[in-house]
């Protein structure tokens, strides 16, 4: 096995010409096996009486005054496994070495270059490292991602946070959790991703659909959550994080322990628990906004260079209380809430989670196997299983408070395989296939007509991506993907709704049972989607680079867009899907220019996304029921254009003083009707000043200012008839809240105890000035102010 | 080799999951349990003709608007004793929702809003302690109004509106206006009335 490994690692370039005795020179370059990034500071030691040699910035080394003969070299690098190789020196010999690059997760200080590899070469891409993720340990993924340019969120209160990339969210943003595409009912506005932020080692965001290996329908982008790399050496390591949170009067604890062996075996376990009570706005308690989260995962397997496998199971359960005042009866209640300026129900603080609330459990299991073929590349095969169970409890009459109003179970099986040809220096090809089966079951015991019907879904996909390194400066990449989706649903429609939608003329043949007031229909729809990408990366000599990317992507409508039909109490609105929905097609062009100077640097990232048949949910009118009037929100398709810019810069003023600056703006337009798109994030500035003093126990202090402008491009408000007022009134459902400014403070210190143990303490203060504000992309902005000041004290032990 | 065995076993298990799922299931029909389809307000005068006001919305949250019916005009200077009956007619036999309201009387209240032009006034004719609590099985001990029974007194001939609203979890006690009471609207209907 070892011999094979060595053989594979070595590329020996034949020597040139004759040489004299003991005047031979051995030169070469040490690079990362995967990314081909030169490794600086690798040490090359010839066994025997020779001085140690280090590689320079380009990863090159030179050992003079050698004799003819065979030498044993020991090559080591802080982030890689040390290897021993044999080299025969005859004359001036060139000998290149590739190391298997491992992030040294026990001690991240030595990271040079980029240990977390980019997923694409030409797309806009950003990462959150473990250090940042840990600061958000008591929060959630959506909040952490807002650190990145162009990423915002659609919130339902503080606990339900859906990541939004370049103005798009939900089914347009894929979330990959350790190589598994999350299937957790991402279609609903009040459905947050069911992932534990404490379970991942890094998160990358690709702002577009160019990472075709993950899916072709990422019109917004892809969020890739990855596990920290497993070191291939004998070690036992772990960490525990404890957070105390003032706003919510609770906290969380998370702990992980890993055992790894030199021969590649590993096992790793992780668990976390979070409990918060009612949150508080500056002026009042946000009654019923507590949360409880439990997460656990276990992973084990064997990882070697040539082959390996791993199995992982993760469990995530969250119980989230939804602001009591946001549960309303009809349009008059909504008008009252909008006008009153403060929530109608304010109770004293409690940690109890009452109705309305949601309880979601997500199980994820996967097995992955890979094998490297010498001179060819790497093949992998993966099976994953997911089960997502969602309960939503409403404030109900009678004895029904403990019966969920929504009770859905989504089960998904996916089998995928891919092969990556990476043996050639100049080009790489990556191809793969995927098959998926999904089943949704809507429990009828709720006593409420189903919002999402029972359905089965079949997906099949295949992709090819290639990259070609033209020369040292220019790299080209392109890819193509095909996806087939079939959805086979069984749904009851009210006869009156079926006729009102006009389905009786177009879809009458779908009816399988007519029960009088309700119709059972069996829609079976097929979608064929093509996606493609083309991009280039150009490196300039003056520390700058330019990335250009075009991507075409298509997305089939999700169950909510097709089948929604009913009253949503949390929003007091009737939501209507449309069976006529067709796939939407996006053409997105992005550019990314980055330049680093001696003490400062900038990144500029403009983009435009044209979406044909863009599906959106918008207020369209009012329907009258015996309960009063309700705004109707209808899904419709139009052509949309999103244009935006993310810009960032940093300046190192002094050794200890650094400032960072970010600006993001996106403009969304419905080009068919020449009107603004709904729910587009406001332009915002983030400026941060950081002071670091490593001598004072790695002291770090930073102050961040976040200024969010008012969204001035919103769709028009609608006129509704108010039964209470007996007249038409303007429902200010689209009016955006005013601009706001928040200050945040973060400080951190580290206390090493020797023998690898370390305590890190940090204090984070959010909304330092206790500012009253409301955010346009928070669905609870109609009912209450956003969160007030919050202190988070964190203790982290590494061992 | 063990790995391979393990993996194939896992894959086969996965396949079994797929093949076991039954796709012939016909989903069960769900009838809204909580819907109130029909509200009938009966106004019985001390002498004269009884007037009934009704609102019926058989498709609940569906697209059809409720059908409103007022049986006749009210007489001048008359006292009517009113009762409200709520039904869910999507179920057979129709479910009487009054029972649930009575059982949760402390969490519910009807409001009777009279248009300014209508020469009439309404007063509550019942209180929470008239009803038996679902929770305790005994009569409520509080005496706030509920409004299942009320009195409507007319004066001079006029026309105007009467809006009947049922609120869930209003502030109790309140000053008798919707604005002060808050809570969620379970049902609301406005009737055009004539006094002659």
From TrEMBL, chain A:
A Gene Ontology biological process term: siderophore transmembrane transport
UniProt subcellular location: Cell outer membrane
Domain (TonB-dependent receptor plug): residue spans on this chain: 131-222
Keywords carried by this UniProt record: Cell outer membrane, Membrane, Receptor, Signal, TonB box, Transmembrane, Transmembrane beta strand, Transport
Family designation: Belongs to the TonB-dependent receptor family.
PANTHER family, per database record: HEMOGLOBIN AND HEMOGLOBIN-HAPTOGLOBIN-BINDING PROTEIN 1-RELATED, TONB-DEPENDENT OUTER MEMBRANE RECEPTOR
UniProt protein name: Iron complex outermembrane recepter protein
Organism field: Flagellimonas pacifica
Automatic annotation (TrEMBL), chain B:
Entry protein name: Type 1 periplasmic binding fold superfamily protein
């Amino acid at each position: 096995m070892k011999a094979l490994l060595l053989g594979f690692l070595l590329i020996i370039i034949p020597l040139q010409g004759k040489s004299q005795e003991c005047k031979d020179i051995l030169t070469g370059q040490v690079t990362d096996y995967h990314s081909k990034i030169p490794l600086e500071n690798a040490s090359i030691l010839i066994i025997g009486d020779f001085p140690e040699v280090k590689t320079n910035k380009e990863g090159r080394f030179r050992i003079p005054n050698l004799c003819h003969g065979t030498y044993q070299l020991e090559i080591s690098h802080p982030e890689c496994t040390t290897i021993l190789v044999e080299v025969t020196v005859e004359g001036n010999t060139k000998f290149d070495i590739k190391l298997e690059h491992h992030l040294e997760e026990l001690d991240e200080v030595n990271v040079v270059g980029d240990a977390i590899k980019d997923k694409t070469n030409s797309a806009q891409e950003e990462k959150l490292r473990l250090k940042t993720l840990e600061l958000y340990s008591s929060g959630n993924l959506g909040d952490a991602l807002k650190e990145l340019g162009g990423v915002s969120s659609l919130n339902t209160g503080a606990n339900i946070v859906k990541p939004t990339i370049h103005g798009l969210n939900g089914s347009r943003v894929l979330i990959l959790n350790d190589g598994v595409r999350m299937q957790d009912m991402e279609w609903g506005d009040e459905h947050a991703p069911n992932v534990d932020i404490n379970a991942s080692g890094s998160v990358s965001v690709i702002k577009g659909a160019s990472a075709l290996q993950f899916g072709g329908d990422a019109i917004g982008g892809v969020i890739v959550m990855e596990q920290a790399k497993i070191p291939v050496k004998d070690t036992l390591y772990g960490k525990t994080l404890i957070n105390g949170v003032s706003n919510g009067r609770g906290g969380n604890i998370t702990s992980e322990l890993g055992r790894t062996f030199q021969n590649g075996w590993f096992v790793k376990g992780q668990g976390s628990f979070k409990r918060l009570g009612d949150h508080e706005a500056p002026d009042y308690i946000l009654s019923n906004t507590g949360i409880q989260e439990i997460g656990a995962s276990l992973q084990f397997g064997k990882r070697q260079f040539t082959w390996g496998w791993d199995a992982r199971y993760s469990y995530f359960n969250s119980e989230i209380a939804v602001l009591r005042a946001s549960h309303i009866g009809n349009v008059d209640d909504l008008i009252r809430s909008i006008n009153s300026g403060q929530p109608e129900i304010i109770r004293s603080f409690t940690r109890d989670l009452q109705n309305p609330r949601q309880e979601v459990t997500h199980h994820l299991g996967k097995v992955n196997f890979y094998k490297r073929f010498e001179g060819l590349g790497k093949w992998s095969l993966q099976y994953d299983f997911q089960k997502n169970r969602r309960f939503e409890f409403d404030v109900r009459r009678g004895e029904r408070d403990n019966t969920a109003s929504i009770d859905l179970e989504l089960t998904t099986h996916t089998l995928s395989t891919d092969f990556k040809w990476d043996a050639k220096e100049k080009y790489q090809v990556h191809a793969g296939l995927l098959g998926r089966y999904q089943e949704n079951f809507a429990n009828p015991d709720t006593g409420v007509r189903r919002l999402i019907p029972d359905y089965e879904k079949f997906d099949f996909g295949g992709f090819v991506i290639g990259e070609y390194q033209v020369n040292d400066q220019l790299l080209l990449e392109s890819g193509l993907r095909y996806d087939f989706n079939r959805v086979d649903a069984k749904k009851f429609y009210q006869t009156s709704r079926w006729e009102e939608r006009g389905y009786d003329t177009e879809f009458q043949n779908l009816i399988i049972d007519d029960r009088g007031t309700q119709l059972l229909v069996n829609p079976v729809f097929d979608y064929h989607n093509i996606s493609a990408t083309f991009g280039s990366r150009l490196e300039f000599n003056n520390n700058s680079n330019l990335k250009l990317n075009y991507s075409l992507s298509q997305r089939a409508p999700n169950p909510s867009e097709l089948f929604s039909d009913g009253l949503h109490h949390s929003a007091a609105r009737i939501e209507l899907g449309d069976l006529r929905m067709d796939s939407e097609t996006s053409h997105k062009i992005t550019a990314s220019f980055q330049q680093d100077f001696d003490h400062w640097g900038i990144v500029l990232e403009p983009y435009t996304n044209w979406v044909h048949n863009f599906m959106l949910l918008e207020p369209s009118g009012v329907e009258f029921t015996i309960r009063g009037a309700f705004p109707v929100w209808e899904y419709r398709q139009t052509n949309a254009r999103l244009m935006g810019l993310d810009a960032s810069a940093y300046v190192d003023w002094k050794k200890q003083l650094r400032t960072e600056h970010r600006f993001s703006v996106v403009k969304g337009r419905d080009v068919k009707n020449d009107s603004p798109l709904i729910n587009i994030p406001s332009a915002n500035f983030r400026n941060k000043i950081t002071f670091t003093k490593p001598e004072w126990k790695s002291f770090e202090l930073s102050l961040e200012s976040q200024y969010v402008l008012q969204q001035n491009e919103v769709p028009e408000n609608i006129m509704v008839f108010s039964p209470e007022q007996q007249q038409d009134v303007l429902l200010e459902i689209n009016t955006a809240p005013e601009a706001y400014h928040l200050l945040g403070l973060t400080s951190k210190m580290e206390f090493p105890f020797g023998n690898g143990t370390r305590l890190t303490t940090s204090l984070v203060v959010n909304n330092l000035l206790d500012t009253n504000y409301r955010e346009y992309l928070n669905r609870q902005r109609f009912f209450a102010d956003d969160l007030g000041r919050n202190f988070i004290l964190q203790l982290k032990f590494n061992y | 080799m063990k790995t391979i065995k393990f993996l194939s076993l896992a894959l086969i298990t996965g396949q079994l999951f797929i093949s076991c799922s039954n796709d012939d299931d016909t989903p069960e029909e769900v009838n809204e349990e909580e819907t109130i389809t029909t509200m009938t307000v009966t106004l019985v005068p001390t002498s004269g003709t009884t007037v009934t006001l009704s609102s019926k919305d058989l498709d609940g949250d569906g697209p059809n608007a409720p059908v409103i019916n007022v049986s006749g005009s009210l007489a001048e200077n008359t006292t009517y004793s009113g009762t409200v009956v709520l039904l869910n007619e999507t179920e057979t036999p129709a479910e009487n929702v009054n029972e649930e309201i009575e059982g949760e009387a402390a969490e519910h209240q009807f409001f009777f809003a009279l248009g300014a032009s209508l020469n009439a006034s309404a007063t509550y004719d019942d209180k929470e302690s008239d009803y038996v609590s679902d929770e305790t099985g005994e009569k409520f001990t509080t005496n706030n109004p509920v409004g299942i029974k009320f009195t409507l007194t007319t004066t001079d001939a006029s026309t105007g509106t009467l809006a009947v609203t049922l609120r869930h979890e209003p502030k109790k006690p309140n000053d008798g206006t919707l604005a002060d009471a808050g809570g969620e609207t379970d049902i609301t209907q406005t009737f055009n009335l004539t006094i002659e």
